[in-house]
Design goal:
Layout lengths: L1 H18 L48 E8 L2 E9 L3 E7 L13 H8 L3 E3 L15 E3 L2 E4 L8 E5 L5 E5 L11 E5 L2 E4 L2 E2 L11 H4 L2 E9 L4 E11 L1 H10 L4 E4 L8 E3 L2 E4 L7 E7 L2
């Protein structure tokens, strides 16, 4: 009887082994075709987060090849155009009216001056007399002294050295370096060492037209003098509002440029602030060759 039971168990084991339900021996066999595989399968690896998308840089041509940024803001409800210029990447110069005998004492229409500047960034600069045709202060462009008065201490000077680093000097407080390749005077100063500094009469300015509300253009420096902000206000504002705007824009130092009917700011053919009168010169920033 026992022999029959053992024989039956052995036969049953052979049937089950043939059906693939159990494995005999140590060698594992793969699943038979059409049969379910009940072996343990390791889980797939967790998906990795996607990497950062590639940054696409749009090539710049024409006026956009200039190393600048342009945006606008409102200060006390007044529109301001802000042009951020990388000074080490541009060449600064003064573009005078087309008069070879006395280039800084002649007048020329703004559009004519702007067209001669090409695709450059242009802005108003020093003050000039509408009757005398005389431009204020010392004028240095491309290392050449076009007009020099060493004893002139009126206003604040914008100096740019050969490395493309700008410095503002209030001439009744600091001696100016007149051996730099670019220099002109305007004012009054608006910001000094990150704080509002507004003392036009101390700097020698008494004209009520300058002290009153007017359209304005300002220049401010940041990032150790390697960044210049040119800010145009096409609507009349006070000097105080102009100073607050330049401070809020992050300028460590800033000064007022020629304004009123002479206020000018443009990038190539795009005019942001248009003057109402002919000018003796423009401040020009061209791409560095």
């Amino acid at each position: 009887m026992a022999r029959r039971v053992l024989t039956g168990i052995a036969a049953l084991a052979c049937v089950l082994a043939t059906a693939g339900c159990i494995h005999l021996g140590t060698q594992q066999r793969g699943p038979s075709p059409g049969r379910a595989d009940f072996s343990v399968v390791p889980p797939p690896p967790a998906p990795q987060p996607p990497g950062p998308a590639p940054v696409r840089v749009r090539p710049r041509t024409g006026p956009d090849a200039l190393p600048y940024r342009l945006w606008h803001r409102y200060f006390r409800g007044r529109l301001a155009y802000v042009v951020r210029v990388s000074l080490p990447d541009v060449h600064a110069e003064l573009l005078f009216a087309s008069d070879r005998a006395h280039p800084h004492r002649a007048f020329e229409r703004f559009d004519a001056l702007r067209r001669r500047a090409g695709s450059a960034i242009v802005a108003s600069g020093a003050f000039f007399g509408e009757r005398s045709h005389r431009t204020m202060g010392t004028l240095i462009s491309a290392g050449q002294v076009w007009q020099g008065e060493p004893t002139d201490d009126l206003g604040t000077a914008l100096e740019i050295d050969a490395r493309g680093v700008a410095v503002l000097r209030t001439l009744r407080l600091q001696a100016a370096r007149r051996d730099c390749p670019f220099f002109f005077q305007a004012g009054p100063r608006l910001v000094r060492d990150g704080s509002i500094w507004l003392h036009p009469r101390f700097e020698g300015f008494k004209d009520p037209v300058l002290l009153d509300r007017a359209r304005r253009v300002a220049a401010g420096i940041a990032h150790g003098g390697r960044v210049l902000l040119l800010v145009g206000f096409p609507q009349p504002i006070s000097l105080r509002t102009e100073a607050e705007a330049m401070r809020d824009l992050g300028c460590r130092d800033a000064m007022n440029l020629d304004g009123g009917s002479s206020a000018a700011l443009a990038i190539g053919n795009r005019v942001l602030v248009r003057p109402d009168t002919p000018l003796t010169h423009l401040v020009v920033f061209r791409p560095d060759a």
